[in-house]
Amino acid sequence: MTTEPTASTDFIRNIINEDLKTNKNDGRIHTRFPPEPNGYLHIGHAKSICLNFGIAAQYNGLCNLRFDDTNPTKEEEEYVRSIIEDVRWLGFDWKDRLHYASDYFEQMFEYAVQLIKAGEAYVDDLTAEEIREYRGTLTEPGKESPYRNRSIEENLDLFERMRTGEFPDGSRVLRARIDMSSPNLNLRDPAMYRILHASHPHTGEAWCIYPMYDWAHGLEDSLEKVTHSICTLEFEDHRPLYDWFLDQLGVHHPRQIEFARLNLTYTIMSKRKLLQLVNDGHVNGWDDPRMPTISGLRRRGYTPDSIRNFCERIGVAKTDSTIDMALLEHCIREDLNKRAPRVMGVLNPLRVVITNYNEDQPEELDAVNNPEDPEAGSRKVPFSQVIYIEQDDFREDPPKKFFRLAPGREVRLRYAYFITCTDVIKNEAGEIIELHCTYDPASRGGNSPDGRKVKGTIHWVSAEHAIEAEARLYDRLFTREYPEDTDDEAGFAANLNPDCLQITTCFVEPSLAGAEPGSRYQFERLGYFCIDPDTSDGKLVFNRTITLRDSWAKIEKKF
Length: 559
Known about the structure:
Rossmann fold; alpha/beta; 3 domains; seven-stranded mixed sheet; CATH 2.40.240.10
């Protein structure tokens, strides 16, 4: 599956348009999405995915999926599988262009040898701490390593011996010889290779030296003939280093363009910190529906369309900003409002007995599947003498403007009848456990038989026919708009929302029997729900995707 090309215009597409005018790269457009397989993708990565694959689609170009697997100690096949699933789920296809940085390890080694032979790289024996000390600061220049002027022959010999595993981890590194007094710290003789005796998921035991990210990244783009290397702003200061490497080697030189990463309120976007949430047991894995990961959003009930629409709306900018979480929530409400079938479910049941209804004559009533979709049709909903309603839909002593059920008050049951509360049944503790009501047989379908007005309409399910299920009610993971803005010793974890998950037993209409995991519904008046993969035979489990409340709609024009 592929998505429709976007028609939006931004500064990146303006650059591409200019390149096409001058026939740069012979008119080719080739992008890539290059995640590191050291965690699951999150909503911030979705922005980059949509941008890179969207540009390729818009300009009839190509987009690669490439794993920057240069650090075997943090990378796992689980992450690779999850990333592939996420990108496909979002609707994008790289066809036969799935690559790994490790595919190019031999070529990168040869390129490093080329720089050594040109006198532009050397083997350094300084420790990692000494290299940091020699590097200098933003206001003070660095100092040259005492090993900086080794002969080419000695450097070639040491580098080859590094490769064959002669030296222990951390004892030597290969560094580029650039400028220890450069105002850009990235150009102060950066490391290109480190010794690391670790098995790699793709190359096994073939290597005990691994390329540093800054050395590998630009080369991967070059080897894949990428034309536009689109990165987030934190790589802007690294661009001169990528340029230096490519220019020294005389190879294909993609154009790097930086854009602002996605920051979202009530959310953290650091894979390291998301991993901390998982490892510390604050969430139940990377795909927990409270997580901002793509797999978590998918499990919660978000759709690919809603996420692509969100990424389209926030656009592409050159400066960092923070997007209101309400916009993401608005996008999923907007999408599910069009596509989600309506059903009735009761989260906090209160038993209601309709005393004048014939218990021996249950019936089926017509209910609309989706008023937003004329082709969605209708379904039959069973009705009987005993029903469940929401506890919140009844007040024994109702406040002003409470138009739902109360003693002596009449309300409309959705798709069914008008009922009037006649009696309230309580237990010994004084808690309401049951209501007795009468119904008007002439009001079948919820229509007024004589023109009388009923202000309240509530949902319900037939107690005899309802399916008992588990509802997981998710809320925002953090209580603070900016979770990382805290002086608490516990850090961002101190801002976790203790009420971000509530689990309750609910009752849903029987049309949901046999519903498949991933199916999405609107529980009328309650919100949007998705069937969780934990669902098994005889047990439905629902995740609440989002409530019906939409605060963003009120402020959208200000965005």
